[in-house]
Amino acid sequence: MEKEYYIVVNDNREGPFSLAQLAERGIEPSTLVWTAGLADWTRADAIPELSTLLQNQTAAYNEESAFGAYARPEEPVQGHYQSGNPYGSSYQTNGFQRHNIPAPSTNWKTLSIVATVCGFLFSCIGGIIGIFAIVQANKAENAMRYGDDFTASNSWSTCKTLCIISFVLTALGLVFNIIYILGLAKLSLDLI
Any idea which of 88-92, 164-168, 171-175 has the lowest mean pLDDT? Predict the structure, then answer.
């Protein structure tokens, strides 16, 4: 069975294509390609079996002008990270559909660590919930790293909720401790 390739064209996944069909389509070195055995979308020029195909297309392209690709100022020079995201606005990686869900503007991981420390100082329950918030923050970061935006978004939301709960319990613990200390101080003054 002939190997099948998928490509990204205008932010859309197309395929499967055979090697001959890719040659007909005229893929470029910067075209993102995925085939069985690749862990992620990869530039066509980084896939060994596509190098001959790309060399033939580059030679034909350069023969059109004495200056090759530089003779076409009307065509933008496309860099791998031109838009900050080499895959466009929506792409698929590691089997997960990416939709460019941005990382949260608030650093919930740092806040979950602060909530845990403060929680253990004033309320053990707040500290324990803070630990669960840290776990969710790590889960979200790992999901983002591996391209699972859905899980990342859900984990950030859960982390945010757990941080807020931890801070509320910490504040309640602080208030309880203050009332307790004031009560002890009043009792000791009454005994004197």
Answer: 88-92
